Amino acid sequence: MKIALTRLHADIDARVTAIRAYSPDWPCARGCDTCCRQLADVPQLTAGEWDLLQEGLALLPAERLGEIRQRIAALTLQPTRPVVCPLLDLQTGTCPIYAHRPIACQTYGFYVQRDKGLYCRDIEARVDDGTLSDVIWGNHEAIDQQLTGLGKICALTEWFERWENKH
Question: Which domain holds residue 12?
Fold first, then answer.
């Protein structure tokens, strides 16, 4: 499972690197947290992704982990959408577990699921006005197929609750 996830990360990183090399003004970069502040739903992670995310959580200071704990607890009670990622540092707009983030976070803005409305509207607007040209969206369905081999899929809130109950 870990080898498959590592391979998937490498494939995504290669695509992102190529896009950035071809379009250095690509909007998905440090400082852009639009997608993190407007999630369609609570993120869903495979067991493999959760294992990696736990490594990142374990590296956080207790105070930061406490903030995340409170936000995740609030998400279980929040009936409205969009959702703000509970991991997001709201002051800096950065992800404190960036190197350990889920595949959905790595692919957003570089891959698309148009039928589910999962794509960056900012990029679409830049394509429409000619600021970005020759954009080729990646096929997120292919990513989803690879994720099916990485174990059970649960909401971040459920994984976190299980993790908290073990500690």
Answer: 2-166
CA distance 111 to 94: 20
Q: Which residues of the chain have pLDDT under 70?
A: 114-118
* Structural domains of the chain, count: 1
The token pair at 74 is 């609030």
Residues 6 or more apart whose Cβ sits within 8 Å of residue 87:
68, 71, 95, 96, 97, 101
Report DSSP letters for 37-91, one per residue: GSBSSSPEEEHHHHHHHHHHHHTS-HHHHHHHHHHHHHHTT--SSSB--TTSBTT
- At 130 the pLDDT is 87
